[in-house]
Amino acid sequence: MAARDMRASDADRERIAELLHEAVSDGRLTLEEHSERIERVYQAKTLGELTAFTRDLLPEEQQPFRIDGRALLALFGSSKREGRWVVPAKLPVAALFGTIELDLTDAILQRKHITLDVSALGGRLRLIVPDGVEVRITGRTVLATKDLRNPKPGPNAAEGPVVEVTGTLLLGSVKVVRPKRKRFRLRREA
C-alpha cells in the first residue's frame, strides 16, 4: 500500500482542521474557502486526501505530515526527519561525513517491520524511537560504533514494531535513543 493510501486518523483530521482555522484567522483563506475545506477534511479517508488541504498554505517543511518515501541524504551536513511522517517499509539513508536524525516518536510506520538501508562513510545515524519499538542493527559495520542507549524496548516489544538497520557503515556511528520518561515527584508540604 502506498503511504498516500493509508487511512487517516481523527487526530490527523483535527491537525489539518487546526491549520485551516489558523489560515482563516490570519487572512490566507476566506470564510467560504475555509468552510468548504473543513467539510472535505472531515470526509477525507486517506492521508493523501488530507495533504491537499494545506499544500498551498504551508511550505513543505511545515506541512503537518509527510508521506513521501524519498531517501534521506546528508553530505557534509545534516538531514532530519521528525514530527508526523509516514515511514515507508524500506527507507534508503546515506550519510557522507554527515548526520541523519530520524525521530520516530510521532511517525506512522507503514509496516510492522521497517528496514533502514544505510550507506554511510564517516557518517552518523541517530534514531529516536518510542517505547515498544525494537531496533535491530544487522548491517555491516567497519570501524563504527553502535550506541543503544536504554536498549530495552519495553514490555510489549514482542508485539511491537521492529526497525532494522541494514547496509554498510564505515567509520561512523549508529545511536538509538528513547525519549526520557517523565518522572512525577510528590512534594511534601511541611
TrEMBL record:
Residues 6-57 form the DUF1707 domain. Coiled coil: none annotated. InterPro entries: DUF1707_SHOCT-like (IPR012551), LiaF-like_C (IPR024425). It comes from the Bacteria. Residues 90-145 form the Cell wall-active antibiotics response LiaF-like C-terminal domain. This is DUF1707 domain-containing protein.
